Amino acid sequence: MAVVSPGRPPGPLTRPPGPLARRLTAARIVGVPLVWLFAAFNVFTGVWLLLSSLKSGDEIFSSPWRLPTTPNWGNYARAWTDGLFGQAAVNTVVVVGGTALATLLLAAPAAYVLSRITTRFNSSLTLFFALGLGIPAQVVMLPLFVVMNQLRLVNSLFGLIIVYVATSLPFAVFFLTGFFATLPVELEEAAALDGATPLRTFWQIMLPMARGGLVTVLILNIIQHWGETVFALVFIQTTDHQTLSLALLGFLQQMQYNGADWGGLFAGVALVILPVLACYVWLGRRIIEGMTVGSVK
């Protein structure tokens, strides 16, 4: 027979929330609405940009918050032809695609070696790549331009790809090193017992298992360089090799002499933003999964 003390009600004991739990609850109450407001503001800005790209210049100022009476698709045609966005789009695809592939080809083997071969220099090498994340682009701009000019790689898409790869490697190697470290070593040991060479083990076993991390680095690299302006503005000097960001700047400068074409300008901005936005909406979940898996061991 159970005996219940008269001064204590039956049931499990519950403790009042501590100060940390109360602070987390208060932060959640304040933070969640702010995050949703920020997300709603970004969605509203994107929709307003798309609607403005289909309006005439007069309609943008007379009724900025209304739907376009008649969609003006000629804005995109003018931006594509007059703003030279066609050639710029091809150049951007070549530069961004070449940068992403070259970064993966160089970063994946380096990260695998740093995560598997244990020497006294591994920590220093990993720290060396991590320090590259904190170097501002303005610091290396002038010496990098001098070196690239001596190699005759200024005003060249290949030279711009080299610059992008060099600036992308620190993050890619640092991220993939942590990702490869989460993969089980037992698979490599089993492959070695079966007679597989280290190169074959990396190429046929470990690299497919790291597909989530590789896709994450690939997507982040594309998003980073699709609209990059600083390096492109320094190393590209003619319109034949300009990227989309430079074409948008050139189209904006044309408006100072040929008159304001706000509909065409909004269409040009949409041409730069929409591919990156579509890529993130399509593959955003893969980015989150890759970063989450690589953050724990």
UniProtKB/TrEMBL annotation:
Similarity-based family: Belongs to the binding-protein-dependent transport system permease family.
GO biological process, one term: transmembrane transport
Keyword Membrane: yes
Taxonomy of the source species: Bacteria, Bacillati, Actinomycetota, Actinomycetes, Kitasatosporales
A single cellular component GO annotation: plasma membrane
Protein name: ABC transporter permease
Organism the protein comes from: Streptomyces mangrovisoli
SUPFAM superfamilies linked to this entry: MetI-like
Transmembrane portions of the chain: 29-51, 88-113, 125-145, 157-181, 201-223, 230-252, 264-283
Keyword Iron-sulfur: no
